[in-house]
Amino acid sequence: MGMFNEEQLAHMRELDSIPPEQRCWCGWARLGECYNCSRDTTRADKTYAERMNAQCPECGADPPYHRYYCSKSN
């Protein structure tokens, strides 16, 4: 049995069809439609593409969490 059911997999396939420039910072909704990203004033207007560009190539963490997870930042 898989980790996700068919409905969840279909939703993830739909998200994959949305270009990163049109998705919210977390990547789970369209830009401007995400409840969590819209509450964070530092990320409300930022896209998933911007997040991918900001991620550390070493650990994959994005700011501000990078300093907690990456050995290169310590």
Distance between the termini: 40 Å
Number of domains: 1
Q: Report the average pLDDT across residues.
A: 86
Largest sheet: none
Integer-rounded radius of gyration: 14 Å
Q: Point out poorly predicted stretches.
A: none
Oligomer state of the chains in this structure: single chain
Helix count?
Answer: 4
Number of E-state strands: 0
Architecture overview:
- The chain has 74 residues and is mainly alpha-helical.
- The chain has one domain.
- It contains 4 helices and no strands.
- It has helices at residues 6-16, 35-39, 48-54, 66-69.
- It is globular.
Helix-strand blueprint:
Blueprint: H1 6-16, H2 35-39, H3 48-54, H4 66-69
Write out key terms for the chains shown:
74 residues; 0% strand; globular; 36% helix; mainly alpha
